[in-house]
Amino acid sequence: MEPGDASSVARLYLRILKRRDRLPSPGLVETIRRFYCDGPFRQADIPSLVHVAEGEVTGFVGVHSVPMLHRARKLRAAYCGSLMVDNRSAAPLAGAMLLKTFLAGPQDVSISETANAVAQGMWLRLRGHVLAPNSLDWVRVLRPAGFGLSVALGSGLPSRALSPLARSIDALWRRRSKKGSLVQFLPDQEGRGLAVETVEPAEFLKLLDRFSGDISLRPDWSNGYGEHVLAEALDKPSYGRPVLAAAFARNRMPVGAFLYHLEPGQVARVLQLVAAPGHMTEVLPGLFADALSRGAVGLRGRSDAAVADAAPGQSIAFAPVASTLVHARDAELLASLRAGDGLVNGLAGERWSRLFGGGLD
User: Fold this and answer.
1) Phi and psi at residue 111, to the nearest 5°
2) What's the DSSP call for residue 188?
3) Range with the lowest mean pLDDT among 46-50, 174-178, 315-319?
4) What is the mean pLDDT of residues 145-155?
5) Residue 212 contacts residue 218 (beta carbons within 8 Å)
6) Radius of gyration of the chain from its Cα atoms, rounded to whole angstroms
7) Please, which residues have CB within 8 angstroms of residue 121's CB and are 6 or more apart in sequence?
8) CA 354 to CA 98: how far, in whole Å?
9) Could you tell me the maximum CA-CA distance found in the chain, to the nearest angstrom?
10) What are the DSSP calls for 242-304, one per residue?
């Protein structure tokens, strides 16, 4: 991919992924160009790829590089975004050629966290592996009436008009309930004695580095990479305003941190959730209580091994939305990932970019 391809790629993005047949906005074209061609941590020998037929861009796979650590060893990871091919009947092998070329690159590990069923099949045929705990989205209902309204109508005018009624129903339900359930969270009864406080970006990055330090494969947040990713991740107007918070035990020891985006009356989007070893079962209710206090009707996030282990008793529902897949030639590295010992989603992955929730389409 060359910078001049950004407009063609943006049209593919709208037509194939968003099902919108119109010209892309200048903001979308610029974001695609900047993210895939001019990012400060882009590796020139690990480029995004286009498929060209008769002079026209008819396929694309977006690739961005991530500096990572496997224990103490520095390595390069490459994330593969959604495969896009226009008129697949005319070029049935275009997607396979794009993926095969990407996987043959010089990166130490290749990852995708947005693969659909077709892409997953191609990855598996090329000796890729599915990371099952990272391939699910989790949902926690906080206010049942508000949650149902948000899911059914989104955040438009009809939803806003019915919000007062939903709040009244939820308040009545809460007064009559004695305990939490799958469709309601009661922080006074389900809390674990944690104190949740908002933190500045610099403090959040310190906690992120601290809590990911025991994970075998993780991003190298140093040299400005963490600051770059977090600055981009905070700006997601389609998801609402960002909340950066840390969870503290009674002795003021930090035990977790999270980033989510919130529009009151809607389902909040959790982008990053980390906890000290053994503390995720406490941090999850702290996250739920914090989002509830800010007006969220529910929460949605990406699962991982730590969340999956802590899920029993949390009234969390899981759903397959997209698969997280990996490909690596190093057997030890691959073993760490397949054992769930890797931080590969959220700020470590690709969903931090403004292509997710940036209001550009």
Assistant:
1) -140, 145
2) H
3) 174-178
4) 82
5) yes
6) 21
7) none
8) 23
9) 67
10) EEEEEEE-TTS-EEEEEEEEE-TTSEEEEEEEEE-TT-HHHHHHHHHHHHHHTT-SEEEEE--
Higher pLDDT, 186 or 295: 295
Burial code of 123-142, b = ≥16 C-beta within 10 A, e = fewer? Answer: beebebeebebbbbebebbb
Encoding tokens for residue 83? Answer: 């495969």
Report the predicted TM-score, pTM, of the whole model to 2 decimal places: 0.91
| Element housing 301 (H / E) | strand 298-302
131 and 337 Cβ atoms separated by less than 8 Å: yes
Yes or no: say if 297 and 143 are a contact pair by the CB < 8 Å rule: yes
Domains, in order of start, for the chain: 3-134 (3.40.630.30), 137-319 (3.40.630)
CA 192 to chain centre: 26
Can you give the pLDDT at residue 188? Answer: 59
Is residue 68 within 8 Å of residue 219, measured between CB atoms? yes
Question: DSSP letters of 48-104?
Answer: -EEEEETTEEEEEEEEEEEEEEETTEEEEEEEEEEEEESSTTTSTTHHHHHHHHHHT
CA–CA distance, 172 with 168 (Å, rounded to integer): 6
SS3 141: strand
3-state secondary structure of 326: strand
Give the three-state DSSP class for 174. helix
pLDDT in tens, 16-44: 988 888 899 999 999 999 999 998 899 99
Q: Are 122 and 316 in contact (CB under 8 A)?
A: no
Check residue 347 and report its DSSP letter.
G
